[in-house]
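The instructor's notes for this session suggest beginning with a concrete chain rather than abstract definitions. Hand out the sequence below and ask the class to guess, before any prediction is shown, which regions might be ordered.
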Amino acid sequence: MDGGATYQRFPKVKIREMKDDIMKFELRETDASVANALRRVMISEVPTVAIDLVEIEVNSSVLNDEFIAHRLGLIPLTSDRAMSMRFSRDCDACDGDGQCEFCSVEFHLRAKCLSDQTLDVTSKDLYSSDHTVVPVDFTDPNDPNEQRGIIIVKLRRGQELRLRAIARKGIGKDHAKWSPAATVTFMYEPMIRINEDLMETLSLEEKKTWVESSPTKVFDIDPTSQQVVVVDPEAYTYDDEVIKKADAMGKSGLVEIEAKEDSFIFTVESTGAVKSCQLVLNAIEILKQKLDAVRLSDDTVEADDQFGELGAHMRGG
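After discussion, reveal the predicted structure:
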């Protein structure tokens, strides 16, 4: 191998759509390994804050204690400062019992039904000791009067629920409740080439039949020239239906469809714990930390000192 050869690549990102809860972007000039690493880090290694310990004082609802504790854990909490928080097991301020400002947040809930109407106990009834870590607000901005919290339990007259909860930092690899991503998907960008000479041997009716064989609207017929055109290459789902149809019509090679091996289209949906754009940035930061840990892995003691959790994490600890 040439001593001056380099395999370094410089990925390019183009943002298509960016909202708090959803983001679409293109990742180009890189490999599938990088795209998949980024996706997996977003799902299972970007930290968030979630309820991890529940002490129930009174529960006369129809749901048992464990059921309510599980539902509380799944409520997404705003986790903008999760990256700077400590894991409770690494916290030297509270020796890991998870009741200090550096690694935990305390919540209280008190609800009692005093009328004949069913009382919905929702995430809006959870009161936080830290205004930066609160249940995610799902109120529709177009209708601010509608209070939409996540229902925890429903109470009838006389039923009561009182509890205290501790939220801690964690990652999706330990439990799905800590995953900040609802879904993260990427697809290879398709490259579609129509054989125009072969296409011209088809009648208009055959062209229509061929276009309609695609389950998604990838192709259409130009009303003026009556030629088949590609209207949305990204709608193609690699189902090969149009290729099978061309073969069945005796027109093999009518269309060539290849996946670009260095171009990916990402869709990132956040639970609301972290904004979608911040989720991507945090994932890149964690990926960089993991690569730094690999560089230091020759000296595992140094790696542990530098990255604590991360050093052991890299070795499967």
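Then share the key points. The two ends are 36 Å apart (CA to CA). Helices lie at 32-44, 65-73, 196-199, 204-212, 241-248, 276-295, 300-307, 309-314.
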